[in-house]
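Following up on my earlier thread - several people asked me to post the actual chain instead of describing it. Fair enough. Here it is, all 237 residues.
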Amino acid sequence: MTTPNSCHPILGAVPDGWEVQRLIQRCSYLQRGKAPTYVEDSEVLALNQKAVRWGRIEEEHLKYHDPEVQIAERHFIKAGDVVINSTGDITIGRAYLFHDAPKRLFADSHVTIIRTIPTKLRPEFLVNLLATREYQDLVYSLVTGSTGQLELNKSNLEGLPVLCPPIEIQKELGQLWAPLYRSVALADAMRTDCEKAIAALFQRDVMDAWREARWNATKSATLPPVEVGLGNQQATA
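Reply from S.P.:
Thanks for posting it. Predicted structure:
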């Protein structure tokens, strides 16, 4: 059983061997993204707060950016980056961890990239910490502005007190969570495939070819009768 060795003014009692530091002290990079220049199609994509969900990115909400307009490389998302929504009444505080580096995807100005120092703060530990009820309440306490214009500004996020167990414990927790992340990724891929299949069904009904053939037949000849079984009787259409 652990016993508290200190009492933080915000977090309260801290377990023995654990530390509390400002988020920026355990990060190599923490910065808002860049506003995109929208186009109809592009290989460069912008991540907005609508796309950021707990445990997944909804790719249908990503926006295309004009490749002729240069975006600094620091705004592009790398493997291990945690992104957190920094505006919006409902979306603010929602976070996601990129386990792998996406292709040419940068954060827009409503999303903040948090790049931790892995030897001090594991990103998988941070994103799960941010998802807890206690930390969601804490994040909201740092929000400024009024309804419709809420902001989680950079300086407030930098000062977020982060509860940090020893790195060995963070790694152990990450190993325990790994199967869950794989399951979430698999479920997300299945969801995407199902959505594509449903969309395809709406675009082309399985009866389309038969209907088209019958329609063409009416233009050149009398429509042939279609037999319909009615018990032991038969009727013609």
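DSSP finds five helices and 15 strands in the chain. That should answer part of your original question.
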